[in-house]
Amino acid sequence: MSRTFRVCILGNARSPHVRRLATALAALHVDVHIVCSGAGDPLGPGVEVHDLGSWSTGPTADSSTTPIWIACPRALIRRFSPTLAALLGDVLIVRRGVRRKVRSIAPDIVYAQYVTSAGLWTLVLGRPIALAAWGSDILVDCRHSRLTRALARVALRRAAVVSYDSDDVRAELLTLGVPETRLVRLDFGVDRAELDVEPVAPSQRDPTVIAFRSLERESYRVRETVVAFAAVAAEMSDARLVVANDGVLRPALERLAGDLGIVERVRFIGKVPHAEVIALLRTARVYVSIPESDGTSATLLEALAAGCFPVVSDLPANREWVRDRTTGRVVDGADSSAVGAAILDGLGRDDLDAIADSNRDLIRTRGVFEENVAVVMAHLAGVTR
Question: Structurally, how many domains does the chain consist of?
Fold first, then answer.
């Protein structure tokens, strides 16, 4: 495909998923433009970022300079209706010029990421549209707000292509009126180069447990992970937990580790750049991810590629990748006792290396990111033929 084919991605340019997608499309000789509210670091050749600025005060503003006439109403709206606040933000972003910017880029197709955010921007666009469902937008946002669901349904029905990352998301998209012929699966898997590196056998690693979930919401259940690890620490004197993310809950979680007497056994290392994720996963024996809701987790797939034994919550998307007691553990994420027992099982198994080999083979079969993006790109290009 020649570089003359142009894709305009609508989404968060700071998101590792958006950045990886843009880079992978550019590697297919696609001219990629990202239209966003708040730009991240520059990307490589073939990717141009267009920052429309924050919906509150503009591209260079921070909270200390937000005018009170904007900050106070916004805070009140968010307190009483987060959904309305998010939608208001999207409306103001659109007013800042999404339609004008997209028109100036003149893409062959617009590919909006996260249906209930950037996906709603497409309601003002008239050119070929594709949407990417990420999981929580469909499984959480659309179920918690009738207004969001109604708007998402309109946006989805206008889309020529809708990508998804798990079977339960696909089923929900069908109930929202998306024709089956417009659906294509996109798992944010593992870069091919990462599979070329043979990791240290899990049985030879220290008994380290690693968690990558965000510390922004209770629904990610990092608290339950810490509580579960306290039981693990009581059984294994050399076990360690690494929490590799950040958020508003971090101070409370650090206090919890102190209250449980495991502060010396738990490391909170903050958010890790995506380039370092696989390397960090290769040092761990067990990977834990027990959120209330999720689509296919990119980090889960990276953990499988890195040879970690997965302990995941009992969700449809997780069951697509992990077979309980065979290639990992699938547990009730709300039950810290069950999570702790599953972690101990993973740390002490004598077949860890065979499980790691099986999981890496699974990723090679259906979790190579570049191959998955190429399939989606073929669908995007097919819309304009």
Answer: 2
Residue 71 has pLDDT above 90, yes or no: no
Query: What's the chain's length in residues?
Result: 385
pLDDT digits (tens, 9 = 90+) for 152-176: 999 999 999 999 999 999 999 999 9
Percentage, residues of the chain above pLDDT 90: 75
Q: Domain containing 346 — which CATH number?
A: 3.40.50.2000
Q: 220 with 92, same domain?
A: no
Q: Mark whether 217 and 284 lie in a shared domain.
A: yes
Q: Which residues pair with 169 in a beta bridge?
A: none
Q: Tell me, what's the pLDDT at 182?
A: 97
Domain of residue 377 covers 6-189+368-383
pTM, 2 dp: 0.87
**Vertex 224 angle, CA 352 and 17, to 5°:** 70
What distance in Å separates the CA atoms of residue 301 and residue 303, rounded to the nearest whole number?
Answer: 5
| Tens of pLDDT, residues 282-329 | 999 999 999 999 989 999 999 999 999 999 999 999 999 999 999 999
Quick one: which of 15, 41, 16, 44 has its CA closest to 32?
44
